Amino acid sequence: MNDSTTLIYAIVLLAALGLVLALILYLVAQKFKVEEDPRIDQVADALPGANCGACGKAGCRDMAVQIVKDPAYTGCPVCNEENVARIAEILGRVPEKKDPMIAVLRCKGGKINTEGKVRFEGLPSCSYANSVLTTESGCPFGCIGFGDCTAVCAFDALHINPLTGLPETDPDKCTACGACTKACPRGILEIRKRRDEEGRVYVGCMNKQKGVYSAKVCKVSCIGCGKCVKTCPQNAITLENNLAYVNDALCISCQACVEACPTHAMTIMPLDKKKAPAAPEATAQTI
Amino acid sequence: MKTFNIGGVHPHDSKLNADAPVKELPVPQQVCVMVSQHLGAPSQPIVKKGDKVKVGTVLTSNEAFLGAVVHSPVSGTVNKIADVVDASNYPKPAIFIDVEGDEWEDDIDRTPDIKREITLDAQEIIQRVKEKGIVGMGGACFPTHVKLMPPKDAKAEFLLLNGVECEPYLTCDYRLMLDHAEEIMIGATILMKALDVKQAIVGIEANKPKAIEHMSEIAKKYPGVSVQALKMKYPQGAEKQLIKALTGRAVPSGKLPINVGCVVDNVATCYAVYQAVQKNMPLIQRMVTVTGPCVSEPTNFLARLGSPVSAFLDAVGGVPENTGKVISGGPMMGKAIMNTEVSSVKGMSGILVLPEESAHRLPLYPCIRCGKCVEACPMGLEPYLIASTTMAKAFEQTEKAKVMDCIECGCCQFTCPANRPLLDCLKLGKATVGKIIRARNAK
Asked: What is the ipTM of this complex?
C-alpha cells in the first residue's frame, strides 16, 4: 500500500462517516423537531429588551411567548407606542391604546426644603436607614435620599440630584417599569400618567401626621388643610389621614389645586407647564 | 475564671464614678409615658383625657400573650393621649400626665422593710409579674411572665441572673447589686419558685469585685443561689453567651435558652419582680446611668418612667459643650437619640453622652479579608460574608450564612481595622431575611 492509496482511503472513510452521522443528525432533528411560532422571535425583537422584570416574567423572550400565545394579554408595561405598534403589526392585532406613564417622587423635602437636625453616618442604604431613623430632618415619611431606587433602575432614568438630595426621573428614559416603587422602603415613588403636554399634578408629600407636626419638619409638606379638595372641579382629590391624594384617572390638569395649595406641596411637572402666577389685580385705591 | 468560648472583644470598661451613691431624679412637671414599652404586641391606652391617676394606676391594656401593661409613674391628671416621637423620631402613641402631688395607689407597700416570706404560689407569682408590667430590664424589654411559662416539652433547670453588665460605661446594675442585694436574692427565690428550679447562678464580671463579694456574702443565706465571677469579655451579658459561660451549655441555632434548660433574667428584672410580688409595686421607676467622658459627675439616678432625657442631663449639670452624640443604652448596643425630649422607658438603662471627637465613624477602607470579624463573632458567624451577600442582595446566601443567629452585638464592627459598616449590613440582612422567612412560612 503506497502513500496515495492511504490518503484516498482516509478521505473516503471520513467522507462516508460524515455522511452517515449527518444523516443520523438529520433524522433525529426531524424526529424531535420543536415547532415554534416564528413570531415569538419577532415579538422578542420588538420588545425593549432590557429584561427589567417589570412584567413579572423571566425576561423579554418569556414575555414574547406570553404575548403571542394569549391574544387577551395586555402586554409589556414598559413598551412605548412604537414598540406596541410593531408588535401589533407582527401579530395582526389592533395596537392597544395606553396612557404613557412615568415614575414620580411624592416628596419635595430633600436638602433645600428641610433642615437636617442630626447626621446619619451609617450604611448609605435607604432600607437600613429607614429602620434606624426617620430622616435627618425628622420626617418619618419623606425621602431618605440614599438612592435605593436609582440602584435598581434598569433604564438609567433615576438619578439623585446633588443639589436637592432627591432622586429625579429622566422623562426621556423612564419606562414606568415600577422597579423603583418596589425598591423604596417608604413607597414614596408612584407610577402616574405622564401628561407631558398638560402637566401631571400630584401631591409632593407623603406625611400623614397632623399639620402642626409635618410643618415642623418640612417647608413644603401637605398639612391636610383641604383647600385643594374644595378647589378641585373634578372631585379628584381626597383627604385621608391629613394627606391629600390626587386621583390620576379624574385629574384634568387644570392646576386649580396647585394655585390653592398654601405650602406648595401640590406639584405640577414638568415645571414649565405651570401657569404663570396671575398678575395681582389692579385696585382702585392706588394713591 | 469562666467565660464563653468563641469570639468576643475587650472594649475598655470605662465605668465612671461607679461608687457614687444613687440619686433620685426629681419628678418632672409633666411626664410622657409611651404606651408600648415592651417587645411584642402593642398595648392600648385605657385612660382618657382628664382622668385622675395615682402612682401605680394601670394606663394600658394588653390581651396578647406577648404583651405587657404600663402603669402611671406619677399622680396627676391625664393631659392628652397623642403621638410623640421616640428615640429614632418615629411617632408613637404616648400618654401625657400633668403631675399633681405624689399620691400612690393604696395597695403599694412603700416601706423600706425587706419582706422575705414568699406567700404566693407559682401561678400567682406569674400572674402578678404580668399584672405589674415587668419586662426584661437589660434593654430588650421582653415580657418576663412569658419566660416564666416555658413550653410543655421543655423544663427549666437553671435560673441564670445577669449581673454581667458587659457594656462599657453602664453602672446601674452594679449599683443595684450593692444597694439591693438582699432584694435581688429574694427576687431570685421568687423566680425559682415560679419556675420550679432548684439552682440559680448570678453571673458577675471580674471588674466588679465589690459586687461579687457583697452578692456572695448575701447569697449564703439563700439556698440554691450562688454567685459566679466571670472573666471580663463583651458580650457576656448576651443571653446565649451567659448560658455558655455559666453552665457550659450551647443554645443550638434557632432554639431558645429554655431548650437547654435555662432561663436568664437581669438582676434589675429580678429586683423589679421582688418589688412586684412582695411589695405590690408595678414597674414605674428604674435605675438609669447618666455618664460620658465629659459629664462632670456621672451618676446613677432612680427615675420615674416617662421623665425626659433632658431632665437627666440637667441633673448632671446640662449637656457638656462639645457633645457630639447622646446614646440611649451603652456604647456597644445603644442607639443614638435624635432629640433630648424623648422620654425614658422601661428598657433605658443608661444615657451616654459622647464628645464630638468620639461621636463619629472613622474613615472607611476596603475590606482586606483579615478575618478579625470572624474571630470576634461570639455566634461563630462570618460577618464579612453576610455583609457582602447583603450588599449584593443575594439573600439566599445571607440566609445560608446563618444571619438569623446574629445577636447584633457589634463585635465585628468594633474589631474591624477597615471600619466597615458590618453591623449595619448585618442588621439590614437580618431584617430582610426575616421578612423573606415570614413570607415563606405564611404560604
From this structure: 0.86
